[in-house]
Specification:
746 residues; alpha+beta
Length: 746
């Protein structure tokens, strides 16, 4: 016990002790209350942005679709419906707080997206060819014609294939014809062709074409080895088939008339802008448009639809204004809006109704409907409604570049419009300075609008272009500043006139000026594409990076309060993600003979030959381009000595690992005892006959799992097998209906 007396209440020591205790209590209270204060602050901010909550429902819908599409295995069919039912029940009984209701609505929307995607995947189920077949006799009705230089490509439906039972016959088949004139849509034809299943991705985590083919009910692709003939007798099509054939015939007629009346390149560009068929556009021209950053001008999207709507709206309103009785008694905007809506609907059908065109039509239609109802025409809610409509009708579109890039551009433009529209409206209404100042102001607004929209749309779509195509257009802003006015002020008015005159056979009167505008567009793209560094390749972005970019962009565009700037953090993380993982050391195509080895300079050393050209280009784009070093000749090696070849195969030594590439059985027998990894196109012997390697990638495995990518770890590690990472195309696709042959038949 302390013998000293306790300090009195008024003493200095007592005051000091009391003050220290109070400070400690305040610090403890502040520390414990910080999370509460932060939570209250976030809740207050969320409540202040309550009007924006509904904009996140389509995002939740897309999240549910993404969960279904990205699942490594097919979920039980009852799981999504059970989850949705439980959430709806909670939504009915738990309505005490607004944020709880909002959270449950978002979860329910995600469950709806999951169920819609799953049910749509099952509803389109159709047989898929299990293995290469042919030459064999194929007959069917022409559903779609794609005009390509030299060899048109057909999509056939109501297919019959010789030596294949009807239960195993694909619903649709895509065939490239021999050099000949394509049959018109709706024709029943017979030909001989070699067919294959839809090809697997040429690299792990690359775009899964089998999934897209599944949703298109496309069960086989191939090429004809004989001319086509008309089937006799041809079955009588139903009403739906006749309407589809009529639409496709109209598209073919318009495309052929435009190509016939213009020079080859300009005719192909005109057909692409009118019907969406870009197959006839020469590859160098398409590449020039991509490198110059104006490839969006060739894909029918919001730009084209809005230009058509604006031309029809302004033209109809101007013509009606010439009728005094209508001008005095009617609100001319409304009949003009009706005519513009009808015209854009016709353009949608003519263009083939792809995802960007559907989104653009929905957006344009909602804007015109807002004009009819005297409502605000441009708002994020319009974008949200259009996104929800597309996702409910075609949930698989979420994973495609068309959906991602088109909605990213539109949402970013609408968000910028929300910020800038009050100031722009004030400047537009200013009347000081007379007609000359007004003309200067109008010109500045137009050019500034092109500059701003090009900058915003280019920045918004850049991450998605990098993810899907591994390329970024450096001079896209400058090209758009030149090309968009040519498109809007010259090309689209003449193109609209040409389309309108095709049924009358009078399109030749307007084709020359249309050709001049298209030549100017092509010249602009080719000139900019030839500039040094016009386009830059970027490494492959991981899926989590794309998710971070998407979430960051949505957070930045959908909220209004300053906390929206937190989206920049997610954007930065996603944009940095391509450099967060090392590229593979070795790539092996499913034929076992097309390979790529990582060189010391960071590029890829590609195996000799021209086979699998698409895979070679994809590997170069995704993983750093081609090395300056060639594939070693027999008896030679690379400059760093890590990769050497002989007539029987090659050996790669890296980080203490030995990888043997064996072309013959003799090389296989020699490499089995001493290599850590053996790669061969031949069937490998049993484990007892080849006990040495930790990993064997042979012809059977390649045929089953597709392209393989290998990352070689440190050979000095104790856990040697764990340090070699392998990923195949089959692993990336998972066990889904579109990737598992056992689940392909409905």
């Amino acid at each position: 016990m302390d013998p000293r007396p306790a300090p009195s209440r008024g003493s200095t020591a007592a005051r000091v002790a009391a003050r220290r205790g109070t400070d400690a209590g305040v610090m403890l209270t502040a520390a414990s209350g910080a999370p509460i204060a932060l939570g209250r602050g976030l809740a207050a901010t969320l409540e202040a942005d309550r009007a924006r909550w509904p904009l996140w429902l389509p995002v939740a819908l897309g999240l549910g679709i993404a969960v279904y599409l990205a699942s490594p295995v097919e979920p039980p069919r009852w799981s999504g419906a059970a989850l949705m039912g439980g959430l709806l029940l909670l939504l009915l009984i738990a309505r005490r707080a607004a944020w709880i209701t909002a959270l449950l609505l978002a979860l329910t929307s995600a469950a709806i997206g999951f169920v819609v995607a799953q049910e749509h995947a099952h509803s389109v189920a159709a047989p898929v060819l299990a293995e290469r077949l042919g030459p064999t006799t194929v007959s069917g009705r022409v559903l779609q014609v794609e005009h390509r230089p030299g060899r048109p490509r057909l999509t056939l439906t109501d297919v019959a294939i010789a030596r294949l039972a009807p239960a195993n016959t694909p619903a649709r088949v895509r065939i490239t014809l021999t050099p000949t004139r394509a049959p018109p849509p709706g024709t029943w034809i017979t030909t001989r062709a070699i067919l294959s299943p839809p090809p697997r991705p040429a690299a792990p985590d690359a775009f899964p074409f089998p999934r897209r083919a599944w949703f298109e009910r496309l069960g086989a692709v191939g090429f004809a080895v004989a001319p086509w003939t008309v089937s006799d007798p041809a079955p009588t099509p139903d009403v739906g088939a006749r309407l589809t054939a009529a639409r496709e015939a109209a598209r073919v007629t318009v495309a052929e008339r435009l190509r016939a009346g213009l020079p080859p390149s300009e005719g192909a560009l005109a057909a692409a802008l009118a019907t969406g068929d870009r197959g006839a556009v020469p590859k160098p021209v398409q590449q020039a448009f991509r490198d110059a950053g104006v490839a969006h001008l060739l894909a029918i999207s919001g730009l084209h639809m809005s230009m058509i709507a604006a031309l029809l709206f302004a033209g109809a309103r101007g013509l009606l204004a010439l009728w005094p009785r209508a001008a005095l008694r009617l609100d001319l905007k409304k009949p003009a809006a009706v005519l513009a809506l009808m015209g854009t609907a016709g353009y949608l059908l003519l263009s083939g109704a792809n995802v960007p065109a559907q989104r653009a039509f929905l957006m344009t239609g909602l804007v015109l409907l807002a004009v009819l109802l005297n409502r605000t025409a441009i708002s994020p809610r319009v974008v949200a409604l259009a996104a929800a409509a597309v996702l409910l009708a075609q949930p698989q579109a979420l994973a495609g570049p068309s959906f991602q890039m088109s909605f990213a551009a539109v949402l970013a433009l609408v968000a910028v419009w929300e910020l800038a529209s009050p100031r722009l409206a004030t400047w537009r209404r200013a009347k000081e300075g007379g007609a000359g100042r007004w003309l200067i102001r109008a010109t500045a607004l137009y050019l500034g609008g092109i500059l701003l929209t090009s900058l915003v749309a280019g920045l918004a779509t850049m991450p998605f272009a990098a993810f899907h195509f591994n390329r970024v257009a450096v001079w896209g802003l400058a090209t758009n500043l030149l090309a968009v006015p040519i498109m809007g002020l010259w090309v689209m008015p003449w193109l609209l006139a040409a389309i309108a005159l095709v049924p009358l056979g009078l399109e030749g009167a307007v084709l020359p000026p249309l050709g001049w505008g298209l030549s100017a567009l092509r010249w602009t793209a080719e000139t900019v594409a030839a500039w040094p560094g016009a386009s830059a390749s970027v490494p492959s972005m991981p899926t989590w990076g794309l998710a971070a970019v998407t979430l960051g962009g949505l957070w930045l565009c959908l909220w209004r309060r300053p906390w929206r700037l937190l989206g920049v953090v997610a954007l930065a993380a996603g944009l940095a993600s391509p450099w967060s993982r090392p590229p593979p050391d070795l790539l092996v195509h499913d034929d076992g003979r097309t390979l790529a080895v990582r060189a010391a300079d960071g590029g890829l050393i590609l195996s000799p030959g021209r086979a699998n050209g698409f895979a070679r280009r994809l590997w170069r784009d995704r993983w750093g381009g081609e090395s300056r070093e060639p594939w070693p000749a027999p008896g030679a090696g690379t400059t760093d000595g890590t990769f050497r070849c002989d007539p029987l195969g090659c050996v790669l030594r890296r980080r203490g690992r030995v990888v043997a590439l064996a072309w013959t059985r003799a090389a296989l027998a020699e490499d089995c005892p001493r290599a850590d990894v053996v790669v061969t196109p031949l069937p490998a012997p049993s484990d007892s006959a080849c006990p040495g390697p930790m990993l064997v990638i042979d012809g059977r495995r390649l045929a089953r799992d597709g392209t393989h990518a290998l990352w070689l770890g440190d050979g000095a590690s104790q856990n040697r097998a764990g340090r070699i990472r392998v990923r195949s195309a089959a692993q990336a696709m998972g066990d889904r209906p579109w990737s598992s042959s056992s689940d392909r038949d409905p």
